[in-house]
Amino acid sequence: MNQLQTMTYDELVEEFDFLGDWEDQCDLLIDMGFELPKFPDECRTEENRVHGCQSNVWLIAQPVQGNSLKLDIRADSDAMIVRGLIAVLLTLYSGRTPQEVLDIDIREKFARLGLDQHLSSARRNGLNGMVQRVRGLARKCLAETAESGDE
Questions:
Q1: What is the SS3 assignment for 151?
Q2: In this structure, what CATH number is given to the domain that contains residue 143?
């Protein structure tokens, strides 16, 4: 199991605090991006592409039934720093219930990591596009669960 699969958000905050310098933090993000799970080639479609990003980003979320319905989120990009930002999103969102995804105060989480001040406006817009895509998929999953009576 790689570090990305086991790292929690709190551990990521600790690591960012320890590194302190944005350049070192950016290197960590890039390293995390290299640890992303393989994204299926057949999912690199226009339907799965996140719009609003400068680089190409593809994102899917699949419900996984267990004791409760959780989202398995996968994503990839052709840009190294964006792959690192995807890793942060997966740390925050993947493996959570749709309601947990919607309840996360993402602005506070990004601010705590300093992403709000260190990313260019284009990167922030792209990151926001990814967040909105995940939140939309979570809302869709909740709606489908409610319609089927599986609440």
A1: coil
A2: 3.90.1010.10
